[in-house]
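User: I'm preparing a small set of examples for a lab meeting where we compare how different chains pack in three dimensions. I only have the primary sequence for this one, and I'd like the structure in token form so I can line it up with the others. Please keep the answer compact; I'll paste it straight into my notes.
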Amino acid sequence: MLPGQLPEVDEVLARAQSENFTVAAGVLPYRIRQHLMALYGFARLVDYAGDEACGPREGLLDLLEADLGRAYEGTPRLPLLRAFAPTLRACGIPREVPARLIEANRRDQHVRRYSTFGELLDYCVYAANPIGELVLYIFGRAEPELIRLSDRICSALQVLEHCQDIAEDFRQDRVYMPAEDLSAFGCDESDLAAPTASAELRGLVWFEVDRAVEMLRAGQPLIARLSGLARMAVAGYVAGGMATARAFRPAGHDPLAVDIRPNRRRMLAEWARLSVAPTTGLGHDRVRDAYRYCERITRTQARNFYYGIRLLPPVKRRALSAVYAFARRVDDIGDGSLSDEQKLRRLRQARQDLDGVRPDAKDPVLTALADAGRRLPLPLRAFHELVDGCEADVRGTRYETFEQLTHYCRCVAGSVGRLSLGVFGHEVTGPAAQRADALGVALQLTNILRDLLEDRRNGRIYLPTEDLRDFGVSLELDSRGMFSDSPHELAELVRFQVRRIERWYAEGLRLLPMLDHRSRACCAAMAGIYHELLRHMWNEPDSVTRGRISLPAWQKASVATRSLAGMTS
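Assistant: Understood. Below is the structure token output for the 569-residue chain.
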């Protein structure tokens, strides 16, 4: 009697219908389909023994290996091994190939972390690559060169599975993301236990998925080297991998919050293309995919800015999305839940990343920024000022005077204004740069006033101490977390700030006539939405004392529409 409880044959084979393994099985002849299903059953049984079974798993794996030996002698005891035995004999499969799957699960009992990607690929030699080799044996094409191509495909599929199952693996105390990659992206293992993926972890997942797609492309010539049923089957596995890789995009590369599974219709369409034309169908442009990654961040998190950004032509829209994505990353570090020491360390890493921006960067945001910097006059050094401002936030810097506050605003927002000017294709010098800087300051001051209560609850006060003193306001909170100051004095303080911010808008909006039509529309839309917020605060100064205010979507869309039409006043 085997220790532990092994699943029933029907239970194991039923799972095949929900996995990528049999994407092409439905159109294959019965004989081939039976061999593939027997292989699937054996592989699932081994995985169950190593991952899910109760009791001593190593004992189960030893007994599975013994029964595998009996299968070659014609006397296996387990039903799934009895089903697999005819395939082993008919296809001439050497024992060491299926035995590697058992060895992979033995390793899982002891090896729970991988230092390098090379170590992970060595694991794939046992955990994934034998599957492809077994398939080639089933089709009578187990030739050395074809096996090498198959290994690339199978390793890619294994990496994709690891990316899908990060949370589940971590709950079993297994981490298949290489330690060197976790470190390179500034991720801690604790990030893997969160309900949603951090920006750093999403970047890492993008990189690993991108690497898996490159391996699929490297193995793609295998399809062209095959014909008939073998081509159809292998094309199905590759199609499943590509569909899985694409499924990460709409999920924002967040496998912690989203159960990432490929769209079956898209998988079948990909399989059909690859079966007919095996040298096409795996189009992959990592720079394009990096921009898509940045655009999704912008679309889902930029809120007010995206109404303007989408008015730009594609090249500029992608570039400004890359600028926003990096700026957002820096902001998220400062606003996150890490300790101050950890935040400052990650901000130092962000500085180093800026100095090493290149198209082949691991990080999708840096890849996009490198391409944008190649196409447009982007002053990427301006990001260092943004990091300066974020470091001041982490240290809890207070501002005695308005001049000190405007310096901070130039760091965190004026820098982005100048970067945006470069995206618009304008030389970042002279009056244009000064006005872009002023507009950035205006937007940041609006942001500070809008978030007055939220920031105070988070322990931050940005308004100058001299202003608070002049208006007799302390910004202290009562037991309900609301301002304890006189509503009248708070209203007067808010209106004073609005009048001062209006002067910065007046200077900054002088930039608009210097821009081309689409860039002017984008800039006007972004500034217009914040300007509307400022007008709201003038009309209802007590609104900032009740919480964060925002414009309804229809009003933002209206501002964007007027901006595109040139109605920017």
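A couple of notes for your slides: The domain at 290-564 is CATH 1.10.600.10 (Farnesyl Diphosphate Synthase). Residues 439 and 509 are 7 Å apart (CA to CA).

User: Perfect, thanks.
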